Amino acid sequence: xxxxxxxxxxxxxxxxxxxxxxxxxxxxxxxxxxxxxxxxxxxxxxxxxxxxxxxxxxxxxxxxxxxxxxxxxxxxxxxxxxxxxxxxxxxxxxxxxxxxxxxxxxxxxxxxxxxxxxxxxxxxxxxxxxxxxxxxxxxxxxxxxxxxxxxxxxxxxxxxxxxxxxxxxxxxxxxxxxxxxxxxxxxxxxxxxxxxxxxxxxxxxxxxxxxxxxxxxxxxxxxxxxxxxxxxxxxxxxxxxxxxxxxxxxxxxxxxxxxxxxxxxxxxxxxxxxxxxxxxxxxxxxxxxxxxxxxxxxxxxxxxxxxxxxxxxxxxxxxxxxxxxxxxxxxxxxxxxxxxxxxxxxxxxxxxxxxxxxxxxxxxxxxxxxxxxxxxxxxxxxxxxxxxxxxxxxxxxxxxxxxxxxxxxxxxxxxxxxxxxx
Amino acid sequence: xxxxxxxxxxxxxxxxxxxxxxxxxxxxxxxxxxxxxxxxxxxxxxxxxxxxxxxxxxxxxxxxxxxxxxxxxxxxxxxxxxxxxxxxxxxxxxxxxxxxxxxxxxxxxxxxxxx
Lengths: 422, 115
Fold this sequence. Notes:
- The structure holds two protein chains of two kinds.
- Chain A is of the alpha/beta class.
- Chain A has 14 helices and ten strands.
- In chain A, strands 7-6-5-4-3-2-8-9-10 form a nine-stranded mixed β-sheet.
- Chain A starts with a strand and ends in a 70-residue tail after the last helix.
- Chain B is α+β, with helices and mostly antiparallel strands.
- Chain B has one domain: Outer Surface Protein A, domain 3 (Alpha-Beta Complex), CATH 3.90.930.70.
- Chain B has helices at residues 6-9, 51-59, 66-72, 80-92, 104-112; strands at residues 20-22, 26-31, 34-39, 44-48, 96-98.
- In chain B, the strands form two sheets. In chain B, strands 2-3-4 form a three-stranded antiparallel β-sheet, covered by helices on one side.
- The chains are: A alpha/beta, B alpha+beta.
- The interface between A and B is large, with 36 and 42 residues.
């Protein structure tokens, strides 16, 4: 909702960046008990250089000073950090609300009761199939049962309105009504987000991303359900079908959103863990605030951008060229169509691309036998896998400034309300 | 966000002669265009697209009537109706609430939200 007396469009302000992010994703650890095939951060093993408890608290101090209202905490599985609750409590005590994503592994009855007691903590349970069969094929054996048990605990504790978060894939796109029913059963709100070819998602994107026909059905379903269903603005590329979906409909990367990763690296968006989108590190002088306000990369992202190859398309104003990360990790130019462009230009571009030019994610924390093997125990430093991935503090410039794209998770938890005009 | 919807334009009346304040769970962050307003209870985000509206919202607790707060921040009689509509929307989403008693908690919130 915007309450306004002046005519300027908010998106025009947002394109130039804000004093602080609206929505900040903070991945606390790369450690995870699961090994989802599409993990956008290639998580599995803990990175030994991850921020200490004290460093995490220092980040929260900065967020409080910058008046970041809340952070989206994720991972990895953030609750496997032994200091997870200490960090959450510290954030809440410092007026930084927390919404955290979890596969539910640590949401016991006791934890659920405690969560239900706080207005400043929101929980998002990840589930990628409305049935165990569909879900477990992507997230691992037993993960459906774990998530459902967590939802039961939250519902029993009286936690109303937690989120059930689903990445839409080719296999679950036909289950939207079933997901809605599942969310309703537990008093949760359904949240659907887009599959990105980021992290391990790059390896499975070709097989898992929704077909063109499924995209159309998804769009119609989203239009029919309006603001009852959250999307984190992630499907704004579908707006080219006609009516815009609720949300900001712009790429928030480095403008209204960003990502802090477990070692403190700051990326333009949660789906862009790659040196090309690395703006700095919270441990450097000036901390997060300097990275947000004056890093070279974010300054570049906030500069006026042309629509490139998409500029002449009749639908450019609605889709804005789609998602920057989706283009980048499928090897498409950033100033061209989204790989899932509803006009079909992306599919053409994919056929024409040079596969050798498809970038690889910069960090891989996958379990050494990801998906196939037994994952390490919680919090246990990576066993047997390749060593930690070196951090690159500098960064390569983004060759072509992204047109607009990545509306990843920005307004994730917000229920976008109507604008109130003059 | 989207352009104003018909429903949002047809805002209900707003008691300009009553005392108002920010909801205690609401935080305000000034931005070049105005401000972001976030309600921790409803988890709703709003945008104040006008610096004068921000000043008005911040002045509410210091005045016995919203009308007086508007005058104090220099809003003219002619401009008052559109600010009234904006306040009505903020009230409808519990961003601002009628002030009954000024508690210690709300005082603290107001101070924290000062720019």
